[in-house]
């Protein structure tokens, strides 16, 4: 693949559990906030039911940042990156893309494979395996590809943003190196699809429950 477009700093980005055990105890959350966060986490798990790979999304919108939670969030991000990398690879194989749309798929396919490699190295033995995908009619023609790509790229951005507050500072710095590129992907493909590339002054994040719902709606994920 060649050199990664960002540094891989595995040991520094995700601290060990032993290092975390020496950290000061976090302050207790107010009861209302604790209940809100617990409800969000429960919703994420509930919405995942019914599809094997999403039955337990393994990431919450809730807990105090920790190395263990970093791994869960990075594994959730790895699922998204696996999906995007496979989508562009298969779309290019089908041969229905032309001009700048094909150029977009070629460039972004390379980026997504680099993101997969980055996250797998960061997670080490904790990295989840690549699932099986079926993209069906979403890559049957260029119009369908554009619609699906807009959905995937924008989902990636809001998924990363939605988990930012739940990461430790080193892991957040690593995630920022990816989400900034995902934002550029989303703007590029939106423009190609005839949509505003930057429709808002700020991108909000979505909770895991909503990201799971979007992934379910694509029906691209078939197995773990």
Can you offer a commentary on this structure?
The protein has one domain: Ferritin (Up-down Bundle), CATH 1.20.1260.10. Strands 1-2 form a two-stranded antiparallel sheet. With 224 residues, the chain is mainly α. Helix content is 61%, strand content 2%. 35% of the residues are buried. Helix 6 runs antiparallel to helix 8. It has 8 helices and 2 strands. The chain is globular and about 45 Å long.
Corresponding CATH architecture: Up-down Bundle
Major sheet: 2 strands, antiparallel
Based on CA inertia axes, which overall geometry fits? Answer: globular
**Mean pLDDT score, rounded?**
79
Output the CATH topology. Answer: Ferritin
Strand residue content = under 5%
- CATH secondary-structure class: Mainly Alpha
**Helix and strand pattern:** HHHHHEHHHE
Instruction: Report Rg.
Output: 18 Å
Number of domains: 1
Number of strands: 2
Spatial order of strands in the largest sheet: 1-2
Number of helices: 8
Structural class given helices, strands, pairing?
Answer: mainly alpha
Helices and strands in order:
Elements: H1 10-13, H2 17-21, H3 31-48, H4 67-94, H5 99-123, E1 132-133, H6 142-163, H7 169-192, H8 208-218, E2 221-223
Antiparallel strand pairs: 1-2
């Amino acid at each position: 693949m060649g050199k990664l477009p960002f540094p891989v700093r595995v040991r520094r980005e995700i601290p060990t559990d032993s290092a975390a055990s020496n950290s000061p105890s976090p302050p207790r959350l107010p009861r209302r906030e604790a209940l809100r966060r617990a409800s969000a986490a429960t919703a994420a798990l509930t919405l995942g039911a019914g599809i094997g790979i999403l039955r337990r999304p393994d990431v919450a919108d809730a807990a105090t940042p920790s190395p263990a939670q970093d791994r869960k969030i990075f594994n959730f991000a790895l699922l998204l990156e696996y999906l995007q990398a496979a989508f562009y690879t298969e779309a290019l194989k089908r041969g229905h893309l032309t001009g700048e749309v094909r150029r977009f798929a070629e460039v972004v396919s390379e980026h997504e494979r680099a993101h997969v490699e980055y996250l797998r190295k960061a997670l080490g033995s904790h990295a989840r395996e690549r699932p099986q995908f079926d993209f069906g009619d979403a890559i049957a023609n260029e119009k369908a590809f554009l619609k699906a790509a807009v959905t995937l790229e924008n989902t990636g951005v809001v998924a990363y943003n939605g988990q930012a507050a739940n990461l430790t500072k080193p892991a957040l710095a690593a995630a920022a190196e990816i989400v900034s590129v995902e934002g550029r992907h989303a703007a590029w493909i939106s423009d190609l699809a005839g949509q505003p590339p930057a429709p808002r002054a700020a991108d909000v994040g979505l909770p895991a429950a909503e990201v799971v719902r979007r992934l379910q709606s694509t029906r691209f994920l078939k197995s773990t």
